[in-house]
Amino acid sequence: MTPADYDKAYEENEISLKGIVGFGVGLFLLIVITFFLMHFFLKGLYEARAELAPPANPMQMTQKEMLPPEPRLQAAPGFGVDGPNGRINLELREPQAEYRELVKIWNDILKNGKKDKTTGVMTVMPINEAKEKFLASAPKAKSGPEAEKLAADSKMFFSDANSGRIASETRR
After folding, report:
1. pLDDT tens across 8-59, in order?
2. DSSP for 22-88?
């Protein structure tokens, strides 16, 4: 313990600048060394993680499989229509674009028919060609009591009066 000097109006400061600078330099060096040690430690962990990574999952979904089912929002990724010549991308188009593209596809099928890509056989005929083919086969109409009963039964329907148990009322 240092005796107090009562002749001075202040207390003498015994802290030296050398001690403060020495502490600051030591603290700085400790921080820098810690930074480099952590850098090499994390680098080693990332390398070890890459080596231990499991192989790719064979059941993992593709990008197309991860998309939600149709219909999707017009601005959503993957919004489009599957046409005869591949996928038609309709992202960021007007809301009616899907309907217009489908009408084009449907009208083309009704007008020209549709062929199977693998065999080349016509799977959907144009309506006029199908009518001609059907009428050329000379279909025979059923006649007799069975046909009349079938025609009469086709006009009957289930009503609320009999709790839907039997077809009881006739369509007019």
Report:
1. 777 777 788 899 999 999 999 999 999 999 999 999 998 888 788 777 788 8
2. HHHHHHHHHHHHHHHHHHHHHHHHHHHHHHTPPPPPTTPPPHHHHSPPSS--TTSTT-EEEETTEEE
In whole angstroms, what is the distance from residue 134 CA to residue 129 CA? 9
The residue to which tokens 């962990």 are assigned: 45
Please report, to the nearest 10 degrees, the dihedral formed by the alpha carbons of residues 99, 101, 104, 107 taken in order: -50
pTM of the entire structure? 0.40
N residues, the chain: 172
Place of tokens 């009704």: 110
Helical (H) or strand (E) element with 108: helix 97-112
Q: What is the 3-state secondary structure (H, E, C) of 147-165?
A: HHHHHHHHCEEECCCCCCC
Q: Where are the domains of the chain?
A: 69-136, 140-172
Do residues 116 and 105 lie in contact, with contact meaning Cβ atoms separated by under 8 Å? no
Tokens 């929002």, residue? 73
For 58-83, write each residue's pLDDT tens digit: 888 888 888 777 776 666 677 788 88
Number of Cβ atoms within 10 Å of the Cβ of 68: 9
